Amino acid sequence: xxxxxxxxxxxxxxxxxxxxxxxxxxxxxxxxxxxxxxxxxxxxxxxxxxxxxxxxxxxxxxxxxxxxxxxxxxxxxxxxxxxxxxxxxxxxxxxxxxxxxxxxxxxxxxxxxxxxxxxxxxxxxxxxxxxxxxxxxxxxxxxxxxxxxxxxxxxxxxxxxxxxxxxxxxxxxxxxxxxxxxxxxxxxxxxxxxxxxxxxxxxxxxxxxxxxxxxxxxxxxxxxxxxxxxxxxxxxxxxxxxxxxxxxxxxxxxxxxxxxxxxxxxxxxxxxxxxxxxxxxxxxxxxxxxxxxxxxxxxxxxxxxxxxxxxxxxxxxxxxxxxxxxxxxxxxxxxxxxxxxxxxxxxxxxxxxxxxxxxxxxxxxxxxxxxxxxxxxxxxxxxxxxxxxxxxxxxxx
Length: 397
Prior knowledge:
six-stranded mixed beta sheet, 11 helices, 397 residues, alpha/beta, 14 strands, single chain
């Protein structure tokens, strides 16, 4: 059995040898941007690469045509490690969130582990997760259809302006509410109308009052999507979209129950009816600092640039839904000057630069080395699981 330092040296060397192929794959995805749930070219390119390198591939995994699972099993028993990747682009922008780097970084790590980690039993799953940018991200749907639940650990990478990890994220839920009333002429026969827009406005008023009776980290907002077309006609239908967020997903469930009662109460007060449709959401991350430390220690080992402390609180992501159910972490890999935010033209313009390719390789190495750490140490894996259970218990789940 080789010592750990030699094993890690072999893994990083293998990824260096793969760099040209990984860059070519990333360039192809960048130049063929596809919106969420339509990532046909990206998923095919990634799965073709995995098939060619000995992985058993299932395309159309967990109910989504462009999702996939590629599996490599070594020996009997051992942990199951999931390496997750996104590959959807942004509408009217392309790959301005760096998702073209994720799949190549993940498959590079997976191939290196397959080739070089031979002393321990494990199962490696590369899982392609479409539609992260969509209101109801693909990981949410996949989880409902049985994905991720067999994993002992889930790992991912994301482009960033620093090399770091995250601690907590906002749970989020989105609803569309449609009020139905009776149309009438507002000047001639207003008494014959039941104003659907009044239902929407009362819903906003109720939400505003609710803000004073929830914890400080709760965020609630909304927008009127359809409130009628002319001032002298009482609209018989009006629609609004609302969202609520909190760093505590379990507490957010209670807030949402109260918010739904606000929507129903607004209908009662305006003599209208209301249809309530959930259109998206995600859970909050359950942090496992031990796993974050594994990633950052390996980032230091490979001399990752722009190392930074963990981001204590972040926005919403469907990876949090996975991390609410499975111990997980994401290495954020620096590829752009600090202060440049995602979903911007600056990120798009940086996507084919050498710094992007270096970030891809760095993340791939960090993930491969971290997989080795977990599969080679039952004690480390147990510590990760125990910390996850303890953090989950704090939420009452």
